[in-house]
Design a protein that fits this description.
Blueprint: E1 3-7, H1 11-24, E2 29-30, H2 37-47, E3 51-54, H3 63-73, E4 78-83, H4 88-96, E5 101-104, H5 109-157, H6 162-171, E6 179-185, H7 193-205, E7 209-215, E8 219-225, H8 233-245, E9 256-259, H9 266-269, H10 272-279, E10 286-288, E11 291-295, H11 305-323, H12 328-342, H13 349-365, H14 376-384, H15 389-400, H16 408-411, H17 416-428, H18 435-441, H19 446-457, H20 461-477, H21 484-490, H22 496-507, H23 511-520
Parallel strand pairs: 1-2, 1-3, 3-4, 4-5, 9-11
Antiparallel strand pairs: 6-8, 6-9, 7-8, 10-11
Helix pairs in contact: 2-3, 7-8, 11-12, 11-13, 12-15, 13-14, 13-15, 18-19
């Protein structure tokens, strides 16, 4: 069905055009009329019409102004201009904005029929091409699935050489110099086991490169390829990936997972699947949330975030108690002892957030920050800029010394347009706002506002908006019994999967980990 939208400030004109269309094209779906540019934009965003018949001279926002905005988001919408203006300039601008035809009022049935036929033919051609592309992609995916199944099953059987592995991986466009394997078993005879594991695969494919196969309905093998990791950090990555893949699936409580050693060459990767399968039945198990994980190697190599948190909470109490004495040598000795005893020089996401929590508490107790907005998120941003533990230690000690701290950077007077933009963003971050919309609110051009953001804040509009939303997300994650899906929509991300990946990329932690972290620090 082709959807048609008629936009004209005269109701009688809308009815007349509709009558002409229905005589020659009764199969078309005519949407409710709109009578100005603002209504037009809203209707296009809500209904996604295939064809718009548009009058130029509408009140408030002209048809051409509305068309400029529509073209930013709806590039494939067909446009026919119906106007009383015969000016060449209007016609030229309309054609530049992608209008398919320019008809003069009063429009005749014959002229409208010719213009409509032209646009409908183009729409049908585009739909045909899109359908062929979808079919082609579907065939490609089916072929890829067959290659993955074949490679995995041959690796399990152990009857494939390196040349065959490399050839198949090249066809799959995968880099297999390093990685690891997991085997997942669901200890039930449920008929939907294969379907359930298929859902896990789809999620895993959104966050990492992998090949996978389902074997005998109950043994599920995934072969991952990732960037080079240390022996410790790859285990943290596994936990994060599993959190994401099993998010919202009650069945994961019944799952058992085996994980191979980390491999650094293609020859080593041949043994990863057998290791992961053997790990399923090892007696030493690690409990990760509700599912059981067995690592093929010894468990003592794992980065124990829970143990680190316990050390940190004890250290934080001592540090904040010493802070009131203002004896810098005692504070320096205490933080040095903490780093040495816990191995905090690794700077994992949990460790960084612990230092951010400490910096937050120091700033809250510092009179110099009394009128400044301080949050865990902006403290985390400060800590994340420091790549070494020595730098982190220095900034903690520097801000602990209240007598020497300088807030010159925070106290810099911002440009009035930037102040107005930040005020608007802070109050509308939960909506689908954009640079263009914000610029319109403060009556300047998007180009000028974008340049001001780079000059004044050294960040883009999107980076600042993401910071605002991440700060709100962390605040909301600290609220008990608030589902992550609700938090996603509350801060302006209707797609919860996208929010999950963005949050992980920004903080280095999953939402579940952050929730546990905030709970532990109460």
């Amino acid at each position: 069905m082709i959807k048609v939208l008629i936009a004209d400030d005269e109701v009688i004109e809308c009815k007349g055009v509709k009558c002409l269309i229905q005589k020659d094209f009764p199969q078309l779906d005519i949407l409710p009329f709109v009578h100005n540019g603002f209504e037009l934009i809203k209707s296009v965003e809500k209904n996604s019409p295939d064809l718009v018949l548009l009058d130029i001279g509408m009140p408030g926002m002209t048809g051409l102004e509305a068309l400029e905005i529509i073209r930013l988001k709806q590039s494939k919408t067909k446009i026919i201009i119906i106007s009383a203006y015969s000016s060449f300039d209007y016609a030229q601008k309309a054609l530049k904005l992608g209008a398919g035809d320019y008809l003069l009022k009063p429009v005749t049935r014959g002229a409208l029929e010719v213009a409509m036929c032209k646009q409908i033919n183009e729409l049908e051609k585009e739909r045909f091409v899109d359908a062929r592309e979808r079919d082609h992609l579907s065939l490609e995916q089916n072929y890829r699935d067959l290659l993955e199944d074949k490679l995995c099953l041959e690796l399990i059987a152990g009857n494939i050489d390196l040349g065959q592995i490399r050839s198949t991986l090249e066809q799959l466009k995968l880099d297999a110099d390093h990685g690891y394997a997991t085997a997942i078993i669901r200890p039930t005879q449920a008929e939907d086991t294969k379907t359930f594991l298929g859902e896990v695969v789809q999620k895993m494919r959104t966050i990492c490169s992998c090949i996978c196969a389902c074997h005998k309905q109950k043994l599920y093998l995934i072969y991952f390829f990732s960037q080079a990791e240390t022996d410790t950090s790859y285990r943290t990555k596994i936990e994060d990936d599993l959190h994401f893949a099993l998010w919202g699936m009650q069945e994961h409580r019944m799952m058992k997972i085996g994980i191979s050693q980390y491999k650094t060459s293609l020859e080593e990767l041949k043994s990863a699947l057998s290791e992961s399968a053997m790990a399923l039945y090892e007696s030493t198990a690690e409990k990760m949330n509700f599912y059981t994980v067995n690592f093929y190697t010894a468990a003592n190599a794992m980065d124990n975030s829970e143990q680190f948190l316990k050390h940190y909470i004890k250290f934080r109490y001592q540090y904040l108690s010493f802070l009131s004495t203002n004896k810098m040598w005692e504070l320096e000795h205490l933080i040095k002892k903490f780093v040495e005893s816990t191995g905090a020089e690794k700077n994992t996401p949990v460790q960084k957030l612990c230092f951010a929590d400490l910096l937050l508490r120091i700033r809250v107790s510092n009179p110099a920050y009394a009128e400044k907005q301080v949050s865990l998120w902006n403290c985390w941003k400060v800590i994340s800029e420091k790549e070494e533990s020595i730098s982190v230690r220095d900034i903690i000690l520097q801000e602990s010394d209240f007598s020497k701290i300088s807030l010159a950077r925070e106290q810099k007077q911002m440009h009035p347009y930037i102040q107005a933009s930040l005020y608007y963003m802070q109050n509308h971050y939960m909506n689908n706002i954009s640079l263009e919309q914000t610029a319109k609110e403060i009556s300047i051009t998007p180009f000028y506002l974008s340049r001001l953001f780079k000059q004044e804040l050294n960040h883009t509009f999107l980076e600042i908006l993401t910071d605002i939303r991440m700060e709100k997300a962390i605040e909301l994650l600290g609220v008990e019994n608030l589902p992550a899906k609700d938090i996603s929509s509350m801060i302006g991300y209707p797609n919860s999967n996208y929010f999950y990946k963005l949050f992980k990329a920004q903080t280095g932690m999953t939402q579940t980990q952050m929730k546990e972290f905030l709970y532990a620090l109460r």
